[in-house]
Amino acid sequence: MARIAGIDLPKEKRGVIGLTYVYGIGKSTAQDILDELDIDRSIKVKDWTDDQVASLRQKVDSEYTVEGALRSEEKANIRRLIEIGSYRGTRHRKGLPVRGQNTQTNARTRKGKRKTVPGKKTAPQ
After folding, report:
1. Would you say 15 and 48 are in contact if contact means Cβ atoms under 8 Å apart?
2. Which of 23, 55, 77, 101 could form a disulfide with 97 if both were Cys (CB 3.0 to 4.6 A apart)?
3. Taking the complete model, does pTM exceed 0.85, yes or no?
């Protein structure tokens, strides 16, 4: 069982895809890591030798910010934006899109379920 950065990699996946299960490692980073260590990309995780797993673990731990450290770093960055009162920070605080997207008709993922407001009744004439 290959365990890297506290994550058990799926045994039946190819090496490149298996490494992407670690938070902070995407496909291109996984390819770069495997190429630098001369590990064939197409070999499944279960077929890695103990030496290969050890070298992968050492490389990921020493050169990349992954998992808990990366999550806490991102939270700290968002907290800093909120504290200094930047525009992006206020958008985070309000739970609205941060990067300039349209919100009149879209942004349901950030805004949540619709809160319907009843229409105004007109007085009889």
Report:
1. yes
2. 101
3. no
Q: Residue 46 in contact with residue 21, Cβ under 8 Å?
A: no
Domain(s) of CATH 4.10.910.10: residues in the chain:
68-111
Handedness of CA 90, 92, 93, 94 (dihedral sign): positive
Q: What is the dihedral of CA 17, 20, 26, 28, to 10 degrees?
A: -30
| Residues 96-121: tens digit of each pLDDT | 999 989 988 889 999 999 988 888 88
What is each CA distance from 109 to 59, 96, 97, in whole angstroms? 36, 9, 9
The amino acid occupying position 103 is: T
CATH architecture observed for domain 3-64: Orthogonal Bundle (1.10)
Query: Which residues, other chains included, contact 44 with Cβ-Cβ below 8 Å and sequence gap of 6+?
Result: 11, 12, 13, 14, 15, 18
Please, what's the largest Cα pairwise distance for the chain? 86
Domain 68-111 is found in CATH 3.30.1330.60: no
Look up residue 39 and give its DSSP letter.
-
